[in-house]
Specification:
Blueprint (H helix, E strand, L loop, with lengths): L2 H14 L3 H40 L6 H47 L3 E6 L4 E4 L1 H7 L9 H5 L4 H12 L3 E9 L5 E12 L5 E10 L1 H47 L3 H28 L7 E4 H15 L4 E6 L3 E4 L1 H18 L7 E9 L6 E8 L27 H11 L3 E6 L5 E8 L3 H15 L1
Parallel strand pairs: 7-9
Antiparallel strand pairs: 1-2, 1-5, 3-4, 4-5, 6-8, 9-10, 10-12, 11-12
Helix pairs in contact: 1-2, 7-8, 9-10, 10-11
Length: about 450
């Protein structure tokens, strides 16, 4: 029976029973119905509340708990921060590897570049230098030393670097002379520029260095060739006329000497003949120096040529020991002219050893491999007094001589012959004493001229 039917029945019984007993029974039923109604309502309310609570707990288990919600939020933030930290670590690792690769590449380029590189900081200390710079300057261990100590207190290169650091001046393609610690003088090409910081202050300088010693020697020899050609054209005709006049004077002197019975006149004629012979010798040597040489291109075996030249020198200077050592190959050229070179150099060495009990001249041969074909190097060394500092720059100049009866054309002719063969000749004092003349002859004559043109192109760029 439903709650509504029960209440209706209680009301009907109450109205039907007029006596008090019936009235009490009806009120009892009414109270029972009201109690059942209230119990049903309370039960329904508790049931709905419990179901709603369960649904909320399933949908958001931590929303009603503020501490749990804060903990969950912090864990989410921490998780995102860790993910971002890992990404930053990855990017940092990538950038570090890229920087290391760039630094490694820069070091490799600097180490292997053919030109010397020297970096000097604002305090005048060499911050870094590559191996080429150490080789060009002839100094090992350039780093962390003062540039004035390394380059020389009074050297031209020190002055240029000092002006760059002090005034910020830029020097492009300057040529300076540098003296190495071993005493060798080298011709250097330098480019110096300042290094500026963000506030435009000078924080150091960069110096690029190239060794132009060989190139400078080649250029000087090329200029000498041009001067020789011009001198030959101008003086060949004059020398020829001199020879004609000397021949006439010599002829008349011989007639006077043969026809005169006076001893004094005959003696004067003999002196005239002697002087004309001396002048004729000078003119002949000058013509050899001035006129163009007609050089053949036949292969010349240097071993027997050197041997014959040494035998001739030993006969002329028996007090001096002359010997050959090393390796002598074959070069292209004129055998007679090359023999004249060896004779002249060996004879000069023997004359420099006069007066010594242990005088000796060594002709040393060496085959230098490199490039398209090897070259022959011949060094003629003596143990004489050496070459003075004043005479060294003028050795190969025409008419310069240190001998009392010398013409000053011997070494000039030797240089001309070597140049015509496409070779090089240089003179220096040997550390153990005496002088040494070094002749370098290419296997094929065009090699030297090609090298000159190639180096000229390089330096012009």
């Amino acid at each position: 029976m439903s709650l509504v039917a029960l209440c209706a029945l209680a009301l009907q019984q109450t109205s039907a029973l007029p006596n008090p007993r019936a009235l009490i029974f009806g009120l009892g039923l009414l109270l029972l119905a009201v109690g059942w109604l209230i119990f049903s309502l309370i039960r329904r309310v508790f049931k709905d509340s419990r179901e709603s609570q369960n649904e909320n707990m399933d949908a958001a288990p931590r929303v009603d708990n503020s501490a749990a919600f804060m903990t969950a939020s912090m864990q989410g933030v921490i998780r995102k921060l860790r993910e971002q930290e890992k990404e930053l670590e990855r990017l940092h690792r990538v950038e570090k590897e890229r920087a290391e690769n760039t630094e490694r590449l820069s070091e490799e380029v600097t180490r292997n570049m053919p030109a010397g590189l020297v970096m000097v900081n604002a305090q005048g200390i060499v911050a870094s230098a590559n191996p080429a710079a150490e080789q060009v300057l002839g100094v090992r261990g350039l780093g962390y030393r003062r540039y004035s100590e390394v380059l020389g207190e009074n050297s031209e290169l020190t002055q240029l670097v000092g002006q760059c650091l002090a005034q910020g001046k830029i020097f492009r393609r300057e040529q300076v002379d540098h003296k190495t610690p071993s005493g060798e003088t080298r011709r250097l090409g330098v480019t110096i520029s300042p290094v500026r910081s963000a506030d435009d202050k000078i924080s150091g300088s960069i110096c690029l260095i190239s060794d132009l010693t060989e190139l400078a020697a080649l250029q000087e020899q090329m200029e000498l060739k041009k001067n020789l050609a011009a001198l030959g054209e101008l003086s060949a005709g004059i020398a020829h006329e001199f020879k004609n006049a000397l021949a006439t004077i010599s002829g008349y002197a011989q007639m006077i000497r043969s026809e005169s019975s006076d001893g004094e006149i005959s003696d004067h004629a003999e002196r005239i003949l002697e002087q004309t012979r001396n002048i004729t010798h000078v003119v002949t040597e000058f013509l050899k120096f001035a006129r163009p040489l007609d050089i053949s291109d036949e292969p010349v075996d240097l071993q027997p040529l050197i041997g014959r030249a040494i035998d001739e020198i030993c006969t002329a200077a028996p007090d001096v020991t002359v010997r050959a050592e090393g390796t002598f190959g074959t070069v292209a050229g004129d055998e007679g002219l090359l023999r004249q070179v060896i004779l002249n150099l060996a004879r000069n060495g023997a004359e420099a050893c006069e007066g010594r009990t242990d005088g000796r001249v060594v002709v040393r041969g060496e085959i230098v491999k490199g490039g398209d074909s090897p070259s022959q190097r011949i060094a003629v060394q003596d143990n004489g007094s050496g070459i003075s500092a004043d005479a060294m720059p003028n050795l190969f100049h025409p008419f310069f001589t240190t001998k009392a009866r010398g013409t000053g054309l011997g070494l000039a002719v030797v240089q001309k012959i070597i140049l015509q063969h496409g070779g090089l000749i240089e003179a220096r004092n040997h550390p153990s004493g005496g002088a040494v003349f070094i002749v370098t002859l290419p296997a094929r004559r065009a090699q030297a001229n090609e090298a000159v043109e190639l180096k000229k192109d390089v330096i012009s760029t």
